[in-house]
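Need residues for this backbone.
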């Protein structure tokens, strides 16, 4: 068996059983690329202020305005402010995960609860767990396993696809990157499968190889080790889970405004500032690792900053984790890379479907030829 024939065999029989799952994972990933923008378009009253004014209210007053809307047994975990003057701020809650109240920083009006739209909730669960439970009570996490195995097979299918595609001449290379639309449906789908796959293969490999770090612990350990990083053991999930502490609903917020003013003054170009009980972080509007942030600790009693942990001095593990996320979702290069990732993910969803079409069409042709034999 020649190498091209071997690659073709591998490409086919890895793609056929896992193609549907690969299409669903790629399609749901594409839908999540512009989740924030779509959510803001669908719910502008929640994410935009009614009127931009010269001064925002102090953070302690914003917490006091939000307190009546905080559910029983949940505490205020911090406030996130945004450099965009037309953007509503968030009063972060201790639970559930990423829960927050949107509040107008100029008037103190609580605009509603910040939460994921149902469509994106479905897309996220489809992308991560194939709609399985977010965490099973016991046994194997089948949804996560199916996504992980399908992604592994996708990597192998992409690499074997390069082996099948590899052109022997310059003309063959040029022709293989053209989508032909005027020579029948079969030729169109074949050219889309080949050319689309080659245009998207690099970004699809980046998405798949980084995405696997969320699927398998052994892969995550090996991936980090390849970059010279040894992962620390995960902390125990036991404890209060960030719930109410000693019956206290509100933390000591007396000096939050002082800390916020100091950090915004010393950090021009900041994108968002989060102030919580004794700690704060500043994220910047820069390309690269979009989770990069400088972190601070302060004394709640007087607001004096006691510890500064700049991103440039952060541990390699934390930096690599942020880069993996940014490379996976495509926001490391701003709008340009996000658009490219969106298109590549849609092409990734189409590849198995066009492959199924070509495979079934080939089987039907073979069947007709056999039926025509005397």
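Answer:
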């Amino acid at each position: 068996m020649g190498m091209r024939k071997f690659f073709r065999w591998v490409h086919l029989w890895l793609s056929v059983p896992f193609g549907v799952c690969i299409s669903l994972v790629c399609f749901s990933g594409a839908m999540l690329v512009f989740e924030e923008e779509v959510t803001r378009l669908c719910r502008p009253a929640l994410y935009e202020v009614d009127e931009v004014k010269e001064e925002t209210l102090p953070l302690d007053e914003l917490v006091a305005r939000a307190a009546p809307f905080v559910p029983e047994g949940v505490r205020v975990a911090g406030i996130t402010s945004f450099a965009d003057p037309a953007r509503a701020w968030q009063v972060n809650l201790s639970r559930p995960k990423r829960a927050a109240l949107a509040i107008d920083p100029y008037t103190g009006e609580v605009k509603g609860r910040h939460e994921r739209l149902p469509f994106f909730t479905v897309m996220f669960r489809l992308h991560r767990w194939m709609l399985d439970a977010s965490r099973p009570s016991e046994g194997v996490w089948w949804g996560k396993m199916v996504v992980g195995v399908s992604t592994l097979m996708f990597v192998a299918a992409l690499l074997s696809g390069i082996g099948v595609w590899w052109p022997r001449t310059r003309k063959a290379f040029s022709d293989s990157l053209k989508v032909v639309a005027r020579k029948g449906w079969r030729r169109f789908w074949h050219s889309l499968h080949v050319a689309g796959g080659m245009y998207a293969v690099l970004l699809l490999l980046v998405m798949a190889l980084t995405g696997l770090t969320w699927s398998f612990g052994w892969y995550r350990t090996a991936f980090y080790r390849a970059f010279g990083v040894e992962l620390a053991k995960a902390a125990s999930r036991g404890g209060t889970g960030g719930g109410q502490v000693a019956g206290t609903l509100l933390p000591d917020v007396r000096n939050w405004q002082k800390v916020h003013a100091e950090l915004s003054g010393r950090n021009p170009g900041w994108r968002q500032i989060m102030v919580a009980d004794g700690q704060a972080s500043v994220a910047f509007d820069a390309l690269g690792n979009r989770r990069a942030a400088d972190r601070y600790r302060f004394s709640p009693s007087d607001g004096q900053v006691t510890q500064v942990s700049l991103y440039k001095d952060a541990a390699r593990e934390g930096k690599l984790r942020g880069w993996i996320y940014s490379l996976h979702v495509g926001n490391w290069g701003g709008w340009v890379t996000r658009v490219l990732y969106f298109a590549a993910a849609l092409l990734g969803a189409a590849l198995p479907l066009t492959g199924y079409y070509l495979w079934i069409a080939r089987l039907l042709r073979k069947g007709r030829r056999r039926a025509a034999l005397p």
